[in-house]
């Protein structure tokens, strides 16, 4: 319920990995030219559908989103609701992550739009980091909760909010203590890794993501939330492909690509926590329920079988380094 597909040839390169594992996904709108209107969302959805058609047998429903800006109009929210394909509006604090430069500079400027979203029952999807350069990068999520998210929740108690890709114990506690209108997605990489993976023994750019990996205490809190059976927490990979050259540059891009093995990685995490019976709810039920979508009727089957992740994938004329590149997996999807 949280995915980056990019666009054009890049999208065509990564889409099959997701389609093999998921019947649908909440598609993020932070393209290089952001998806700020319903018309742009419809066009993006059409391009995804064309890529699916080009790959015979690929069935997938893209659940579209809009990109919130200081200038988003209330009338756009009505158009989005009427479209039938837009399921959320993404709030990126300006400058906090990939292609967020045209994001929101002050959430108070968007209060009329949030009120319209509350009335139209369209979810607000938040990238939970404060856009304050004076705040330590490892504390940006905590300060976002205190300074921004609490304010939104208080002003708009009936607004459905998805706290995306949470990374801290503070975020887990906030969601648990909030109303049923607030849920959260958790990524596989934040469940698997702490910040040592990125920094120990050198800098490992393919583990760099935003929000950044945190301390072990936070990873353990995320695992506890994910396997708890609490319906407020559900799967969102935040799989974010970048070419090897842009990840390994002097200013490497933030994002981890996990679509090639996403459900298998979650299965490994839940098995290690002795909670495999909780995976189906986390992966298939809770997110759909939160968004008011029907639960999928079809299924996939995982088997305990070892296989090796390729070192690289082709990526629109370049290469893409996936999570766990060159290493083994213990779960596999039955074809």
What does this protein structure show overall?
- It is a single chain.
- This protein is of the alpha/beta class.
- It has one domain: Alpha-Beta Barrel (TIM Barrel).
- 37% of the residues lie in helices and 15% in strands.
- Strands 1-2-3-4-5-6-7 form a seven-stranded parallel beta sheet. Strands 8-11 form a two-stranded antiparallel sheet. A two-stranded antiparallel ribbon has the order 9-10.
- Helix 1 (8-21) crosses helix 2 and helix 3 (74-83) runs parallel beside helix 4.
- It is globular.
Task: Provide a compact summary of the structure.
Helices cover about 35% and strands about 15% of the residues. The protein is built from 12 helices and 11 strands. The chain has helices at about 10-20, 40-55, 75-85, 110-120, 140-155, 170-175, 190, 195-200, 215-225, 245, 260-270, 280-290, and strands spanning about 25, 60-65, 85-90, 125, 160-165, 180-185, 235, 300-310, 315, 320, 330-335.
Strand content: 5-15%
The largest pleated sheet is described as: 7 strands, parallel
> What structural class should be given to the helix and strand makeup?
alpha/beta
- What is the CATH level 1 assignment? Alpha Beta
Count of separate structural domains: 1
> What is the annotated CATH architecture?
Alpha-Beta Barrel
How many helices? The count is 12
CA distance, first residue to last residue = 23 Å
Please state how the strands of the largest beta sheet are arranged side by side: 1-2-3-4-5-6-7
Query: What best-fitting shape do the alpha-carbon axes yield?
Result: globular
- In total, how many beta strands? 11
**Low-confidence spans: pLDDT under 50, at least 5 residues?**
none
CATH superfamily: Metal-dependent hydrolases
Helix content: 25-40%
CATH fold-level assignment? TIM Barrel
């Amino acid at each position: 319920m949280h995915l980056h597909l990019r666009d054009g040839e890049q999208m065509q390169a990564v889409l099959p990995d997701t389609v093999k594992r998921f019947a649908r996904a909440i598609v993020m709108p932070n393209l290089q030219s952001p998806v700020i209107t319903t018309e742009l969302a419809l066009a993006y959805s059409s391009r995804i559908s064309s890529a699916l058609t080009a790959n015979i047998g690929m069935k997938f429903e893209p659940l579209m989103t809009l990109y919130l800006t200081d200038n988003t109009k209330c009338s756009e929210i009505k158009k989005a609701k009427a479209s039938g394909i837009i399921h959320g509006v993404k709030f990126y604090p300006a400058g906090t992550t990939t292609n967020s430069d045209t994001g929101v500079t002050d959430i108070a400027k968007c209060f009329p739009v949030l009120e319209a979203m509350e009335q139209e029952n369209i979810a607000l999807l938040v990238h939970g980091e404060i856009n304050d350069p004076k705040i330590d990068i490892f504390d940006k999520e905590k300060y976002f909760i205190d300074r921004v998210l609490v304010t939104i929740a208080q002003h708009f108690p009936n607004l459905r909010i998805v706290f995306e890709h949470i990374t801290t114990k503070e975020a887990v506690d906030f969601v648990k203590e909030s109303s049923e209108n607030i849920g959260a997605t958790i990524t596989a990489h934040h469940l698997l890794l702490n910040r040592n993976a990125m920094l120990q023994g050198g800098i490992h750019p393919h583990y760099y993501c935003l929000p950044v990996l945190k301390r072990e205490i936070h990873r353990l809190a995320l695992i506890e939330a994910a396997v708890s059976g609490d319906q407020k927490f559900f799967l969102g990979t935040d799989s974010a492909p970048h070419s090897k050259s842009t990840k390994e540059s002097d200013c490497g891009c933030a994002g981890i690509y996990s679509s090639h093995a996403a459900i298998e990685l979650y299965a490994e995490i839940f098995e290690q926590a002795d909670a495999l019976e909780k995976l189906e709810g986390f992966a298939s039920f809770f997110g759909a329920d939160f968004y008011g979508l029907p639960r999928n009727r079809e299924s996939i089957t995982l088997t305990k079988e070892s296989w090796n992740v390729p070192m690289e994938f082709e990526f629109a004329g370049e290469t893409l380094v996936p999570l766990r590149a060159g290493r083994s997996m213990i779960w596999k999807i039955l074809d």
